[in-house]
Each structure stands twice: as C-alpha cells, then as structure tokens.
Specification:
Layout (H helix, E strand, L loop, with lengths): L1 H18 L14 E5 L4 E6 L7 E5 L2 E5 L18 E6 L6 E5 L4 E4 L21 E3 L7 E4 L4 E4 L7 E2 L13 E7 L7 E6 L5 E5 L21 E6 L7 E7 L2 E5 L7 E4 L8 E8 L7 E7 L6 E5 L7 E2 L12 E8 L2 E8 L2 E5 L7 E10 L11 E2 L4 E10 L4 E4 L1 E7 L2 E2 L14 E3 L12 E5 L9 E7 L18 E3 L1 E2 L4 E10 L21 H6 L5 E5 L3 E3 L6 H19 L12 E6 L9 E4 L4 E5 L5 H9 L28 E3 L4 E3 L4 E2 L7 E2 L2 H16 L9 E10 L6 E12 L5 E2 L3 E7 L2 E8 L4 E2 L8 E8 L6 E6 L2 E7 L6 E6 L8 E9 L7 E7 L7 E6 L6 E5 L6 E12 L2 E12 L5 E4 L4 E4 L5 E8 L11 E4 L5 E4 L2 E4 L7 E9 L5 E10 L11
Parallel strand pairs: 27-36, 37-38, 37-39, 37-40, 40-42, 45-46, 49-51, 64-70
Antiparallel strand pairs: 1-25, 2-3, 3-4, 5-6, 6-7, 8-9, 9-10, 10-11, 12-13, 13-14, 15-16, 16-17, 16-19, 17-18, 19-20, 20-21, 21-22, 23-24, 24-25, 26-28, 28-33, 29-32, 30-31, 30-34, 34-35, 41-42, 41-52, 43-44, 47-48, 47-53, 50-51, 50-54, 54-55, 56-57, 57-60, 58-59, 58-61, 61-62, 63-65, 65-68, ...
The chain binds zinc ion.
The site of zinc ion has 4 residues, from helix 4.
Length: about 1000
C-alpha cells in the first residue's frame, strides 16, 4: 500500500540522521521535566533498593535518608553512628541486609531495615574503606576497598578477607581505587579502576581477587588513563564501561575487558571532564547513563546511550548542567516508568517520565475554527470549517515516530456518520514529540470535522492514540481519551454590500478602478479566515465614483461619509450605527499612491472603506463596524482598555483552517497595527457576541414609509463645531423615532416651534490618528411641508441650521443618443431656475419601477450636466428607470428617464481555494464557493451545485467536503451557481495529490 511505503521511507530517513556519529542534543524537554530536591547535607551515595524499585536510600553526613516514592520526598534522618558521615551503602539483593561505611572507614550493618546497627566482628584489617558492592550469586558476596586494598565478605560484612592479591601497589597510599564492579553471571570476575600517583588504569580479576591483570586500556597517545568509574552490563556482562578522569573518555569493551574502544565526549578548548558515574538502567536493556562533571559547560551534563555505551548523546538540553559536585546517578521506578536521579553535591535532580519504553496517551483535543484556548472557551460556529488537533502525552526519553490516532464522534451516545476519522497528517502519522509546540501543525494529529457533525446539541469527541497498535507501549490501556463535549452554534451570515470605488483624484486625470473579480473571495478572504461566521451574503454594488482627495485623511473621511449617506439613502435606514440586520456597506479601493491609510471605518456602524488588495484590511475595518476597538500595538489611538494580552498579541495559538497553518502567539491581533496579524480569542468572542445579537434580533414591527429627509453632516474636531451638509428629500423611507439619545440634537422647526427633535452621537472614524478628522452622522427624519428650518445643536449651543427653501428646482432629463450594440449610455439634464450654490445632483437607477434605488453618481459641480453609465453594471429590469435628483437646500426636484430592458447578469462565481490546489494524499478536503449576483444579491445555498470531472453531481451548498485523494492523482471539481433568472455561471479547481512538504516556520 502506497501510504505505508511512504511512511516507512520517512522513518528511515529520520533514523539515518539520528545515527550519524555524535548526535545533537536530545530534543528539548521542558524544564519542568526536571525537578530538584535538596537534602540539606552533602550526599555521598544514592542506592536503589534492589527488592523494592521505588525505595531509594541516600547517605548523607549525619545519617541515612529514605524515599518511598522514587525520590520525590524523603523521610527523616536515620542515625547510624555519631562517629562520622555516611560514605556508602550496599543492600543485599536477597536478604535486604543493609551495610554502610561510616566516615572514619568503619563498617556498620543492620538486619532490620536500619532500626538498629552493629559493627562487624572483624573489620577489614583496620583499613579506611570506601565503596561497597554486592555481586551476584546466592548468597551475594560483598566487596569493599581502601586506597590500596580490596576485601571480600560472604556473610554481609561480619567477617572479611583481603583479596588484593597481586594487584600492583604503588608506594604506600599513592594509589586510589575509585571504582569496583563485578560480572553478574561470574561473581568472581571483578574490575577495579585506579587513579592517581604512579598511574591509573583498569584491572581485572577472574578468580575473585586472587590474581589481577591489567587489560590494554590506553589513551590514543598510549598513556594510561585514570579510571574513576566502572560499570558492567547486568544483562550482557561481557560489556564493560570505564570512565576516565580529565580527558572525557568513556572506554568500552564487549569481551569482558579483552579489548577496548573509546568514545570521546565533546570538550571545549582547555576543558576538563570527568566521568563520575556510569549506570546501567535496570529496567531498559541497553540503556546506560553517564554523569559527567567538568570545568566547562560544553561537556558537563547527563549523557545517555541506548546501545550499551557505543554512542552517547546528552540526555537533553535542559538537564542540570554544568554539574560540578560529587556525581552519582541512578534510575528508580516511578508512576510513569522510571525516574532518573542525579546527585550533585547536596541536591538530587529528578527527571520523571524517562522510560525507554514509551507510553502514549491523549493529552487534549483542541477543536478550532480560527483560534482556541486551552480551556476550550472559544465558541464554535456551525458550518464553519473546523479542525480538531489531538495533542499527545509522550512519556519517553525520546520522540516517538509513527504515532497515529483516530477520532470518534457521538451524539446522544450514537456514533456519527464517518466516525472514527483518520488524521490528515502525511501518511496519517506524526513523530510524537515530548513537548508539542502548538505553533507546529505537524506536532499534533489533525482531523477535519465534517460539517454534518455540527448541528444540534452536544457532540462528544474522543481520540484513541495508536489504534493499530504499531507502537509497543508500557501501558496499552490508556490510549483512549475521555469524551470532550462540543456545541456548535448557529450564526447569521454576514451581509455585506461591496462597493467598487472608481477614484479620480480631485475630479481630474486618470480614473482608478478596482475589479472585485480579481480579488480572492471578492476581497473578503481575510474576513472568512478570521470571523466567527459560516459564510457571507455578499452583493456587489455598481461602482461608486469618488472625486475627493485620498492622499489626505480628510478625503478618506469624506468618502466614508459619502458611503454612509449612500447606505442611508438606499436602505432608508435610520442611522449609521443601527439597523444591525441590514447589510454593511464596504467600499473597496484600488491601490493608491501616497495614501495615509489602508482602510477607515466608523466604529459601531455599518460603513467602512479600504484598499481591496490589502489582505486583512477588510476584516479589520468591518470588525470596527461591529464595535471592536484597536488592540494596543503600534500607533493606536484609544486602544481597547480591556484588551487582555500585552503588546496587542493574540496570546494563544491560532489556526488558519483554510491553509492549515498555525498562527503564532506573538502575532498581533487583527485590531492592532502590528503585523503579521490574526484574530485573538478575545476579539473573536466579541465579534461572535455581536453576530449572535444579529442572529437573535427580531424584525421590528413593520413601519410605514413616509416622506422623509436624509439628514447628514459632520461634527468638527473637538466636538464644538458642526455643520449640516444636507437635508435631502426622499419620497418614502423608514424614519428614526423622535427623541433618540446622544450629545447632539437635530430639531425640525415650524411656525409653532420645535415639531420634531432627535438626539444622536456622531461617529469618529477609527484611524491611527484622528486629529483633523470630523465625526460623521446620517439618518432619516420625517418630512412635512410646514417645516421651515432644521437646526443642529450641541446641548443649548446652535451649531448650524438649514432653511427650507420655498421653491423646489425643476429638472428635465433625457437619454443621449446611443449605439444599441454598445452597453454604454449617457443621461443629460438641465435645471431651472438656474442652478444655485447649494445644489447637489445625484443620478440613480431603479430596476423595480422606483421602489428601490441605486445611486450611480453624485456631484455638486454645477458645470456637470451629464453622467455616463454602463448597462453591464446595472441589475436586470423589464424597464429600467434613471432618475436625476437635484437637491437645493431642503427641497428637491427630479426627473425620470426610461432606459428600456436591462439584461440579466450571470452570477459571479469563485472557488475560494483558487483554480489550482495541491493537497496531501489521505487528506480530506473542504472546498468553499463564493458567488454574488447583481439581481439577487445573496444566492440560496440550493443554487450552488458541485460536480466532478465526469459531470457527476456531488453536493449542493457553498461548502463541499471531498474524500481523500490517492497519491499522484488529480481531480477537477466544478461549481455551478444559478441565479433566480435561471442563468448559470461556473468556476473550477484542479486538485493534485502529493505529499505535502512542511517547511519550518521562520523565526522572526
Ligand atoms: Zn483600525
């Protein structure tokens, strides 16, 4: 099977890399893997009870300490003798008799676990002895040594005999014996290391010490090394290791000392390293530890070998180093396998979970749609593409290759269709690392949750690691996780009217245009990636002509205000900041030179603008309209005081589900000015709350439209000045309810006084700096013929007023002659009496006989008396209507021209993933379609139709979930979307399957 072959070859490559000579440091283990315990006194020896592997003894200056829990905690002092510190300890592996050496060289023994102690009948000839060692056999034989002599006892130290034999003796007291080790199968085979004075070296006896020989163990130059540690493999006693002093070499023999090779630890210049202890792990065959002290940080540390001492690597980067004291090392049994204990002076360093036989379990399941927190507090949205990341708990002293998992899903105890899922990782497996980094997608097993699992009630997820039992584990019964409960909530689709802006700076020179079809997802890609929505209902407006100056903040502010007026005029909404259920208006700008902003929006409003090709600008500005403030990073005015994470960072790891790319915690929040940006959990939830309000909002009681004025204007910087810039008559519109609330007030006066009053707040654009920017307002109030004046007030201060003119202008309009084969048209008009200073002329289009209007252009340039437009930009109509409206003060005149039938436009269709897509084999796919239609706006889900290359129908709706592809195959998937007039448009994507290559994230 191809999948298995690929996985195996991957493992082989990794294996080769690890086997090359002296490896790099072991993969980093979190510092918390090491803990330390101080015993308050210098520790001379650490001995694991051979009959109870969680019990460990430590000899210290004033007695003995015992731990019953693998070295985590230590009992009180057991006093042995007052004559000196305890040097060493040996435990009879059969009887449990304790034998210690007290500091003055005297031996004490206890047959009752340390309650009472006695001296031997005959000490080892008055010598000051040091180490103690039980060899194998029954009864076990006990050895000790002084600085020049070796002694043997067959009765637990009651009687001793001298077995120094012919061991070469230097001049008195110039030779030290530092190490003693015995062959477990042949108890009479002994090794001693020697240090100092007249020469070091290693010596071997085959006859229990009666005679000694010196194997040929030399440094590369031929000199004899000082040997300060010796160890014999308990399972392969032909393997003998000897640690040197100073040169940092570990000598190794595989024939019981007959011949030797050496492994050199990496020494820095002028560095000295001493291999203080060598320790064969009692539970993991082949594993051996070395405690290496030294004068520099390069060599000192804990080393491990998994091949009986042939190749050594530093145990891990965070081991307690450099080690400088009296080093001994031991492993004891612990709750998660064995525990490595390292003594350095008076401190025991303890590393848990260090077993050679790994154990895997599920540490957590993270269900994410953009970002998720460890406490799983981020809301999940129905029908939003979703990935579950399964984090593994790895109890091992190395990473575990070839780890897999499956994901089960149930609702009300019943399995959901497709459960269990397989992961989408290449080959379905990962190398399970001991400290998974959530910023690395390949550190988790990842699953695409089908949208059919989302709706309705609690869904339980449970993961099972190593379901095919390919990995030998210490515990095969802890592989299945408990259930993680999830609820997916329904959120309304985001409604947005996208407005392509045609920009002519100051009304002269070239016109810059943007074509939304050129932008990914019509410019909404960043919104889909970061908002808690399942999709958006976009419609595209006819282009809006803007002739201000977008090289200035004031120009941007003006365009924003004009779009607010446009929205109020077209939707007949009562205010910039309300009518949540109505679409947002978002103006998309072409690329601009010399622009002060990338985007601008009113907060808590419905209007924004931005440069369309700027990837996350649309998301940032639309988020402002949902009430989000800036996150505190970069030059932010009025940052959100409650933003919870320093420097405006996102703080938790996000995930771009579409790209399957984690977003590092250091990224700035979408609402900050620090890039790269991603949405924080905090702002994601804020957006969700607002969108949820929209979902829950009830349509208010139907209100009758009435004659109205669209009132708009600006409040100047500081809020002390203001101007009413228009009171535009509207034939019929929904109006605001009288009274309102806010710092400013509009009053409508008639002969009797104030006939209508409405209080409101003006909206300041969200910008890096708001100095010089005006706050805008726009809303619709009732119009009646008795009104003579509109007044704008701040408190009792009159800011501005408009007198209602008595005579409305008279307008005539006509369609200029045109070529029927050309879609371009032109309307011309004239006004009488002669145009006045305050005239504003707008040209608008209705496809429905005047019930709703779309503004095509607007000018206050009195010299302009015609407008060109294109039928290709207009919604279909049996008889399209063009109206020219001239507003003079608070009065208006208008004229309408029929333009005849306007053809239906096919919908515009895109597949969000593009036209070419490379995926991994075994990776299920989710394709997302996007469409908008001039006539319909939103297109119902049922009108999306997905087909394969053979024309076979696959599914309907904006999302398509596809099964995994086989290796080296490709598919062509098409999406057809049909509008209400039955016109269909199509997009397609070619999907190619191959192994995805994951590149490491760049560190920035
Ligand atoms: Zn902003």
């Amino acid at each position: 099977m191809a999948r298995r072959g690929l996985a195996l070859s991957l493992i082989m490559v990794i294996g080769l890399g690890a086997a090359i000579a002296f490896g790099p440091a072991e993969p980093a283990v979190a510092q918390t893997d090491w803990s330390s315990v101080g015993l308050g006194q210098f520790i001379n020896a650490l001995v694991v009870d051979p009959r109870n592997p969680v019990q460990v003894f430590a000899t210290v200056d004033s007695g003995l300490r015992v731990s019953q829990d693998s070295g985590a905690s230590w009992g009180p002092f057991i006093t042995v003798s007052t004559s000196g510190p305890l040097q060493s300890l040996a435990i009879n592996p059969v009887s449990g008799v304790l034998v210690v050496v007290v500091g003055d060289g005297q031996i004490r023994r206890s047959v009752n676990g340390g309650v009472t102690w006695s001296a031997p009948q005959s000490g080892p000839e008055g010598q000051i002895v040091r180490d103690l060692l039980y060899t194998g056999g029954n009864p076990p034989v006990l050895y000790t040594h002084s600085e020049s002599q070796i002694f043997r006892s067959a009765d637990d130290g009651v009687n001793w005999s001298n077995v120094t034999g012919n061991l070469p003796d230097g001049s008195p007291r110039t030779i030290s014996l530092f190490a003693l080790a015995a062959d477990s199968r042949i108890p009479t085979r002994l090794y001693v290391g020697r240090y100092g004075g007249l020469g070091g070296g290693l010596f071997r006896s085959q006859d229990g010490g009666a005679s000694w020989s010196q194997p040929a163990l030399t440094n590369p130059g031929g000199s004899t090394p000082d040997i300060v540690s010796v160890a014999v493999s308990p399972t392969n006693p032909e393997i003998v290791l000897a640690g040197s002093y100073g040169t940092g070499r570990i000598f190794r023999s595989t024939d019981s000392g007959g011949s030797w090779s050496a492994f050199a630890l990496p020494l820095g210049p002028f560095e000295v390293a001493y291999v203080n202890d060598l320790y064969f792990d009692q539970t993991a065959p082949g594993r051996v530890f070395a405690a290496v002290g030294g004068s520099g940080s390069q060599s000192a540390g804990i080393y491990v070998s998994r091949d009986n001492g042939a190749i050594w690597t530093r145990l891990d980067a965070s081991s307690p180093s450099p080690l400088t004291g009296n080093l001994t090392i031991a492993t004891v049994a612990g709750p998660f396998g064995d525990v490595v204990l390292v003594v350095d002076g008076g401190v025991i360093y303890r590393r848990t979970g260090a077993s050679a036989v790994p154990n895997l379990s599920v540490s957590r399941i993270e269900v994410t749609q953009a970002i998720q927190t460890p406490d799983r507090s981020v809301t999940l949205v129905q029908n939003r593409p979703t990935i579950a990341r399964v984090y593994l708990n790895v109890e091992s002293d190395s990473d575990v290759q070839g780890a897999s998992a499956v994901l089960y899903a149930t609702r009300n105890g019943q399995p959901l269709p497709g459960s269990p899922l397989r992961p989408i990782n290449p080959g379905g497996v990962i190398t399970a690392v001991r400290s998974p980094n959530a910023e690395r997608f390949e550190h988790t097993l990842n699953f695409i949750i089908p949208s059919s699992w989302h709706p309705g009630g609690l869904m339980a997820l449970s993961a099972e690691v190593d379901p095919d039992n390919r990995i030998t584990e210490r515990n095969e019964n802890d592989n299945r996780s408990p259930n993680y409960l999830n609820t997916f909530l329904n959120v309304t689709r985001l409604k947005t009217v996208l407005i392509p802006i045609e920009y002519q700076r100051n009304g002269v020179g070239p016109v810059l245009r943007i074509n939304l079809r050129d932008l990914p997802a019509f410019g909404m890609q960043g919104v889909y990636d970061t908002f808690p929505i399942a999709g958006a209902a976009n419609s595209v407006h006819s282009p809006y002509h803007f002739t201000g100056d977008l090289t200035t903040g004031a120009g941007w502010s003006q365009l924003l205000y004009e779009l607010a007026l446009l929205r109020a005029r077209e939707l007949a909404v009562s205010n910039i900041g309300d009518a949540l259920t109505l679409p947002k208006y978002y103006g998309m700008l072409p690329n601009l030179a010399g622009s002060p902003y990338l985007g601008l929006a009113y907060r808590n409003s419905a209007v924004g603008i931005g440069i369309g090709s700027s990837l996350d600008t649309t998301a940032h500005e639309l988020a402002h309209t949902f009430g989000l403030q800036h996150a505190p990073c970069g030059a932010t005015m009025n940052p959100d005081p409650n933003y919870p994470i320093a420097e405006g960072r996102i703080g938790f790891v996000g995930l771009n589900v579409r790209l399957r790319q984690p977003m590092p915690t250091r990224y700035g929040d979408l609402m900050s000015y620090c890039k790269p940006r991603w949405i924080s959990a905090y702002n994601y939830e804020k957006l969700f709350d607002t969108l949820n309000q929209i979902s829950l909002a009830q349509a208010g009681p139907a209100q009758a439209p009435e004659p109205a004025w669209l009132v708009g204007g600006a409040i100047g910087p500081g809020g002390l000045s203001g101007a009413l810039s228009l009171a535009e008559p509207l034939a019929n519109a929904i109006t605001v309810t009288a009274s309102g609330s806010g710092a400013y007030r509009l009053e409508l006066w008639n002969a009797g006084g104030v006939a209508f009053a409405y209080s409101f707040n003006a909206e300041l654009p969200e910008a890096p700096t708001t100095s010089g920017l005006s706050a805008g307002f726009a809303f619709v109030v009732p119009r009646s013929n008795d009104i003579t004046e509109l007044r704008l007030l701040a408190g009792d201060t009159l800011l501005d007023s408009i007198s209602v003119a008595q005579f409305a202008p008279s307008v005539s309009a006509q369609l200029a002659s045109f070529n029927p084969s050309d879609s371009r048209r032109s309307v011309t008009w004239s006004v009488s009496p002669a145009p006045g200073e305050s005239d504003t002329t707008s040209v608008r289009y209705s496809a429905d006989g005047g019930q709703s209007w779309q503004v095509l252009g607007q000018t206050d340039d009195l010299a302009v008396s015609s407008l060109d437009f294109d039928l290709g930009d207009l919604a279909a109509s049996a008889d399209g209507l063009i109206e020219v409206v001239v507003v003079r003060g608070a009065t208006a005149g208008s004229a309408q021209v029929s333009i005849g039938p306007v053809a239906n436009k096919p919908p515009a269709v895109q597949i969000v993933q593009g036209t070419q897509l490379q995926v991994a084999t075994n990776e299920p796919l989710v394709l997302q379609g996007n469409a908008y239609d001039h006539e319909d706006g939103t297109i119902p889900d049922g009108n999306y139709s997905w087909r394969d290359e053979a024309g076979q129908f696959l599914d309907s709706g904006p999302l398509l979930e596809l099964p995994p592809l086989d290796a080296l195959t490709s598919r062509v998937i098409s999406l057809s979307v049909t509008d209400s007039a039955g016109v269909t448009a199509q997009a397609s994507v070619t999907i190619t399957a191959g192994e995805r290559i994951y590149l490491p994230l760049l560190r920035r």
